[in-house]
Amino acid sequence: MSGDKPTSKQPRDDTDQSDTETATVIAPGWAVVFHDDPETPEDFILHAAMRHLGLDIDAARAVAAALGREGRAVAAKFPKSVAQQRAEGILAAARPKYPLRVTVEPVEP
Mapping DSSP to helix (H, G, I), strand (E, B) and coil, where does residue 35 land? Predict the structure, then answer.
């Protein structure tokens, strides 16, 4: 059999590095944005950023600092459906105690 083209009896070897296929990468186009308020404590912002957005402590602290400084902070970027799910999770955790506002906004190109 010829080694050039896969047949039904010869599966394609996807590990072959000679292929010149290109992978499609979907860029995150939506931002999860925290909005400052006088009642939500920084500890909750840190917890939410780490637990719901997967940020490490240093990144979570940077979000909290930007939030205090600017009144809003882009915490993470995801595809739209993921950003919406993450924002909803944060709001569900906040609602019993805090008036935290979190929005999902398109990322500027």
Answer: strand
